[in-house]
Amino acid sequence: MDIRPIHTEADYKATLKEISVLMDSDPDLGTPDGDRLDILVTLVQAYEARHVPIAEPDPVEAIKFRMDQSGLSVKDLEPIIGKSNRVYEVLNRKRPLTLSMIRRLHQSLGIPADVLIAETLSG
């Protein structure tokens, strides 16, 4: 099993391509191909942890994600953000989050406050 560390972007892309081929064949764990896939995925994760920065999530996207994950509707956010028109304005990036909205979103939905205070991407 000839496996080498990922040092360059070219190594990274080649490893991703090999992982894709192996995943298509869906090898069983404990087989040579299954072991190879496991090792290559571990190498890619280590490379990405060092070389691929993870951007902080956008506050509005974090709210939408939590809504989706929890099965919440605009109506469910009214006690937290305000009347439905205000909720839509926030979700459509027409109105910024206020400090009190951020506090309530954090307390009610468990969205980290640092995510909610981050700069919102322009819509």
TrEMBL record:
Q: What is this protein called?
A: Transcriptional regulator
Could you tell me the superkingdom of the organism this chain comes from?
A: Bacteria
Q: Which PANTHER family match?
A: ANTITOXIN HIGA
Q: Which GO terms describe its biological process?
A: regulation of DNA-templated transcription
- Give GO MF terms, alphabetically: core promoter sequence-specific DNA binding
